[in-house]
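[step 3/7] fold_predict: job queued, chain A
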Amino acid sequence: MLSSIDDDVFTAIAHPLRRSLLDDLSEGEMSVSRLAQRYEVSRPAISQHLRILLEAGLVDGIRDGRNNNYVLRPERLTQVYEWLRKYEKFWSQRMSELGRYLDREAAKKNARRKNR
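[step 4/7] structure written:
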């Protein structure tokens, strides 16, 4: 069972724009204005999404004069990684199956070329 703090993290990353903001912040500290320039969304909308990320502990807000800057707190994503790790075995299995399929298809293609 996940705690309410964990739920906050999962809820925060559920929205694609917030995941994209986290990706942007993985490059380093950024202002709300700079982040807003990257999207076709209003600055207040970006601020609202950042507030959700802040409340979930995924980012820290830094006041720099009149600017609000944000920085990623990647350690909070550890909970997501730990949860997803349980499902890694399924991905590995599927990737192995895909690899075997591609090998069979390549062998068929090579056999057709030789028979021409």
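[step 5/7] annotate
Strands lie at 30-31, 59-64, 67-72.
Helices lie at 4-13, 16-25, 32-37, 43-55, 78-85, 88-114.
exit 0
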